Sequence to fold (228 residues):
Amino acid sequence: MSTPEQEVEYRQHRFSPPPGATEIFLVRHGESAPAKGDNPFELVDGQADPDLAPEGRDHAERVGRRLADERISALYVTTLRRTPQTAAPLAAKLGLTPEVEPDLREIHLGEWENGLFRRYTYEGHPIVEQLWREQRWDVIPGAETMESFGGRIRAAIGRLAAANPDRRIAVFTHGGVIGEVFAQASAAKNRFAFLGADNGSISHLVVSGENWMVRRFNDTSHLQSPFG
Fold:
């Protein structure tokens, strides 16, 4: 007597990176020191280079604990010291020396470097309103053009992906950079749609050739921050 053939089950697909793809955890640096008019930041190639604030060092420790078991093969930082300072706890846990990727440094804010962007944002400067209305950093006098910024970010991500096929890497970078990466990945019409990643947050991108896939944005669960 024949038995009924077992019914085939078709489960929902679970994502896995394509062969040769690179998983990139983009970590925004921890909170940096506050800007003070009578104590300007040091500059590196014309860009403000503040240390981490005490809160930022706590962010760095929490990031290190969160990512310590994520099979990360390489770490990258920028030329601005708040990124290697944020990477330091994870680097110590993994026994890895971070490599410097200069092109993932923050957008250059021209005449508004050295804390002036923070001040003018707080004061409600009319150019800040124009910046958000037009979705362009280069309305700020002397700022890097959007074309230059977007081009160097895309080139840098492409280089890191090409150097790390089938690997996971962590990139310690800046809020403007993360916003630009995810705007490009999603082809967002609003260029600032992903601006505002929190200090110490982790975002996750998968790069397979020219295809950039968004996996998560602004994960702060390790920071124990409520929604807000």
In short: The mean pLDDT is 95. The longest strand covers residues 211-219.
